[in-house]
Amino acid sequence: MKLPLRLRILITTIVLLLVWGHIAWDYFHGGIPTHYLLHDDNMPGFPNWLGGIILPFFTWFLLYRIHKRIDNTEGDVASESLRIVLFRFIAAALVAIAISVCFIHDVKEIDYILGAVLVLAFFFPIYKSEYLLGWVLGASFTFGAIIPMGFGSIFALVFFIFYTLPRKLIGFFKKPKQV
After folding, report:
1. Which of 16, 80, 88, 145 could form a disulfide with 140 if both were Cys (CB 3.0 to 4.6 A apart)?
2. pLDDT tens, position by position, 86-113
3. DSSP states of 148-172 as a string?
4. Cβ atoms within 10 A of the Cβ of 22, count?
5. Contact 140, 51 (CB under 8 A)
6. Where are the bilayer-spanning segments (predicted)?
């Protein structure tokens, strides 16, 4: 199953409506909150309306990357199915929601969750776009959109290194020596 243009437009439109609906709700119920980097008022702040502008473009960009990867036009079979992509998205969104709930209720197990995700990065390709999109959409209700986009992008880079570097090293040392 492929990710057609119509579905990408629909998903991006839904994200656009949800994020601006949330911003409108905040505006009429006490004001639009500002989220601070590292939860410190001395650090730069990002108001939710800024995420309302950037998040739909970010969603469109990641959906395009997913589309390019799973809609294999050169071969007969796509490398991944839309079902696997959806499963990965939901898994990342659930992890982000769990971290958000722990943060709201001041539960200290966030470190353990993030540690488990770091370990999983060695075994699963959690740097892929669907994981990043799930993370950002799952965490944006609590942290705004900008902070999850920034940290998620950094995590994706780290996860890419964790996943690919050991495989490259193993492949390098397994090469037969030429005489």
Report:
1. 145
2. 999 999 999 999 999 999 999 988 999 9
3. HHHHHHHHHHHHHHHHHHHHHHHHH
4. 18
5. yes
6. 7-25, 45-64, 85-104, 110-127, 134-163
CA angle 33, 8, 153 (to 5 degrees): 50
CA angle 162, 93, 79 (to 5 degrees): 60
Rounded to whole angstroms, what are the CA distances from 41 to 26, 34, 37, 45, 105? 20, 10, 8, 7, 20
pLDDT per residue over 113-171, tens digit each? 999 999 999 999 999 999 999 999 999 999 999 999 999 999 999 999 999 999 998 88
pTM to 2 decimals?
Answer: 0.88
Reading phi first (left if > 0) and then psi (alpha if -120 to 50, else beta), residue 67 is in alpha
- Contact call for residues 78 and 2 (beta carbons, < 8 A): yes
Report residue 152 as tokens: 């998620």
- 144-148, Cβ contacts within 8 angstroms, sequence gap of 24 or more: 144/33, 144/35, 144/46, 144/47, 144/48, 144/50, 144/51, 145/19, 145/48, 145/50, 145/51, 145/52, 145/54, 145/55, 145/58, 146/35, 146/46, 146/50, 146/51, 146/54, 147/35, 147/37, 147/46, 148/96
How many other C-beta atoms lie within 10 A of the C-beta of residue 65?
15
